[in-house]
Amino acid sequence: MRRILYLTAALAMITTPAAAQNSPEAERVRAVLAATPLIDGHNDLPWQVAGRWNGDARQLDVTQDLAQLDPPMHTDIARLRAGGVGGQFWSVYVPASLDGPRAAVQVMRQIDLVRELVRRHPDVFAMAYTADDIERAHAEGRIASLIGMEGGNALDNSLGVLRSFQALGVRYITLTHSQNLDWADASTDAAAHDGLTPFGVAVVREMNRLGMLVDLSHVSEATMNDALDATRAPVIFSHSSAFALDDHPRNVPDAVLRRVAENGGVVMVTFVPVFISQEIRDWSRARAAENERLMAQWPDRGTADDAAVEAALAAWEAEHPQPIATLSQVADHIEHVRDVAGADHVGLGGDFDGIETTVEGLNGVEDYPTLLEELARRGWSDEDLALLAGGNMLRVMRRVEAVAAELADEPANYATLEELDGAAE
Cα separations (Å) of 43 from 39, 60, 176, 232? Predict the structure, then answer.
């Protein structure tokens, strides 16, 4: 009886715009999200605290409507409830410009913030480390809170530090962020290693042994393939979309999508406008070219010349307004991943509070049901909607946990970067 009451309460929390509340699609989605936790792969709320309030968690009040801030935030309790969110990977992000102890400290501060968020609101959030934890929290009407670490630079080239982060509750690591590491190439940097080095392979295999999800968002295509070669467990892309629909290097090529299906992993489609809209991608290229052209006119520019460049670029933008990414385009990416990799290999990773501009129709965490309703209108079955919402992620987590159990007798790896890759020249 208690479980039934919790599920009824969870269903009632899921809201949609008034005009659509009684549509067949809205009713279907409410039922799906009452039975299956919607698990989002990436939310940067902790980084917002670092950026807005210098890391002071006391300044964050998620009981308020944080959409009213300037600029607005995308996440608060009311909107998480409205969006039917049942599990959230909170990103503990570290800028690529930081490394070593500074990066590790930044990550630990954000881990502390996630724990404080849960401590303050135990009726709303529950810390989670396993698939069973997520399902238990969902049955209790709470939002499972997991920790995903964005940026392997915080490991300081140490497998011991990797193990320490796992002990602190980190359940996935995005191998790189925007810049290459000593052992892995990023998608938005010039290739240095052609993928993973031997130490990078050791990182992946130690994560397998520990039961950590290997996250391939942000890595180069060569790194994606090397990680898929090395891993003994399914991988994830916590917040990436389809390269075939938008040729941004942060997106996943079809050849890799097919390998993800073979691997058993999941691609969690993100809502970043420039990763969703090829028109925005092309506009961004044109804007960068115009900026470069303007800067070339003043190679030794001073403050007044900088102002002239900014004014000229603003005039160009007025004549060439940025296109708008739409919810329908996000649905197109989801369907492309499904069509290439299969319905068992697609999920959701919004990157809310990590983006400045949102997709039209996906303004915050409250809008997940609207996206699922669009897919329902396109003919998606309730079973496939449940897989997308969270079923696929639960399956991947359980397999990752099973692989760790199979490897439990393997000793920890203490090899160093120098031992595996050779001393730096």
Answer: 11, 15, 17, 27
The secondary structure of residue 252, as a DSSP letter, is B
Mind listing the pLDDT tens digit for each residue in 245-280? 999 999 999 999 999 999 999 999 999 999 999 999
CA 121 to CA 127: how far, in whole Å?
11
Helices (H), ranges, 83-232: 100-120, 131-139, 159-167, 198-210, 221-230
Tokens 């319905």, residue? Answer: 343
The pLDDT of residue 5 is: 39
- Shared domain for 181 and 311, answered yes or no, is no
Count of domains for the chain: 2
- CA 380 – CA 347 distance, rounded (Å): 14
Would you say 180 and 156 are in contact if contact means Cβ atoms under 8 Å apart? no
Q: What is the CATH number of the domain that holds 337?
A: 3.20.20.140
Q: How far is it, in rounded angstroms, from Cα 181 to Cα 223?
A: 11
Same domain (yes/no): 241, 315: no
Encode 275-311: b = buried (16+ Cβ within 10 Å), e = exposed.
Answer: bbbbbbbebbeeeeebeeebeeeeeeeeeeeeeebee
Do residues 319 and 339 both lie within one domain? no
Ranges under pLDDT 50 in the chain: 1-13, 15-19, 425
Instruction: Give SS3 for 301.
Output: coil
Beta bridge partners of 40: 88, 348
pLDDT tens digits along 6-54: 444 444 445 444 445 689 999 999 999 999 999 999 999 999 998 999 9
Distance between the two ends of the chain, CA-based, in angstroms? 66
Range of the domain at 69: 2-275+325-420
Alpha carbon distance 263, 396 (integer Å): 10
Which residues are identified as catalytic? Answer: 42, 44, 150, 177, 218, 239, 351
CB burial of 141-160 (b: ≥16 within 10 Å; e: otherwise) equals bbbbbbbbbbbbbbbbbbbe
Strand, helix or coil for residue 362: strand
Rounded to an integer, what distance in angstroms lies between the CA atom of residue 192 and that of residue 190?
A: 6
Phi, psi (rounded to 5 degrees) for 418: -65, -40
Residue 24 to residue 271: CA distance in whole angstroms = 25
